[in-house]
Amino acid sequence: MTIHNLYIFSKNGTLLYYAEWNRLHKSGITKGEEAKLMYGMLFSIKSFVSKISPLDPKEGFLYYKTTKYTLHYLETPSGLKFVLNTDNITQNARELLQQLYKEVYLEYVVKNPLCQLNEPIQSELFKLKVDELFKKSPLFLGRSI
Amino acid sequence: MRQQIDTKINSHISGEADECLFEYLHAEMVNYVLDKSYKTKEGEEELSRLEWMGFSVGYRIIERLTREWNRFKDELDMIKFICTDFWTSLYHKQIDNLRTNHHGVYVLQDNSFRLLEKVGTNSNKQYLQESPRLLTFTCGLLRGSLANLGIISTVNAEISTLPSCKFHVQVQRI
């Protein structure tokens, strides 16, 4: 199980935070462009899913899967978007994102009076805690079965 | 973990306001005062209003916190009260270290000050510049409480590594 990379977007699409752990293939464009591309795609998928769904889409878009990786998506009621790429056998990545939101984002960004909300996160302590959370998570182990 | 936090809050003597309410309000107060004040030369921040707010709050808090206490024996006794009960009811922990020269100078050290906890750890120097503004209110708080106990003092704060800080209390003898 492997975690590849993580994006956090604000409600209006600013890339607040990006981190990567095991990313073997680079996109070849700058991080800013990549983030815009990513956000655009997510935005489209979201509206696609809500339009095309034959039933009431309660939670909407949750994840997608390719042959190589899975993208997990978590959007909070306030519009914050957490995006995590993992391999295909990883489960419970959503819980991990919830945990990231509750235990790291809320604690070290919202409760830090020196952090501006809706701007890229600069806090070193936040970065440290994200890394800690992911590295101690059982999903992180780079052991492929 | 959550359980632990909950019991800690419940067992707490004064639950007058939820803790994050205070944290957010404090942050906004700091921003407000910074916004209103003119920067002096050298870009130093003018925070005396914030200190004054702290003073008034401290002055009032002492009335309430000491209602079940007898009179204090001496100055050291009062400072000890500040370090233990007073600090616990405001910041959920005691002062970690108290030092004095027995001539009116007290140094109160908190190794994990609540208002700095979420800002940084000792391994990074980020925000060290901005952090002192988060202590001004507490300086006033200390000064106000001591004033109501009959000690006129000046209080300064010092941060060397986050999230620990030291408050220097200098008693003024008349």
UniProtKB/TrEMBL annotation, chain A:
Any single Gene Ontology cellular-component annotation: endoplasmic reticulum
Location(s), subcellular: Endoplasmic reticulum; Golgi apparatus, cis-Golgi network
GO biological process terms on file: endoplasmic reticulum to Golgi vesicle-mediated transport
Superkingdom of this protein's organism: Eukaryota
CDD domains: TRAPPC1_MUM2
Keywords for the protein's UniProt record, in alphabetical order: Endoplasmic reticulum, ER-Golgi transport, Golgi apparatus, Transport
Subunit relationships: Part of the multisubunit transport protein particle (TRAPP) complex. The heterodimer TRAPPC6B-TRAPPC3 interacts with TRAPPC1 likely providing a core for TRAPP complex formation.
Family affiliation: Belongs to the TRAPP small subunits family. BET5 subfamily.
The name this protein goes by in its record: Trafficking protein particle complex subunit
Organism of derivation: Eufriesea mexicana
From TrEMBL, chain B:
Database matches in InterPro entries: NO_sig/Golgi_transp_ligand-bd, TRAPP_component, TRAPPC6/Trs33
GO terms classed as biological process: endoplasmic reticulum to Golgi vesicle-mediated transport
Name assigned to this protein: Trafficking protein particle complex subunit 6B
CDD domains: TRAPPC6A_Trs33
Pfam family, any one: TRAPP
Subcellular location: Golgi apparatus, cis-Golgi network
Highest taxon, organism lineage: Eukaryota
Main localization, broad class: Golgi
One Gene Ontology CC term in the entry: TRAPP complex
Family from the record: Belongs to the TRAPP small subunits family. BET3 subfamily.
Coiled coil region boundaries: none
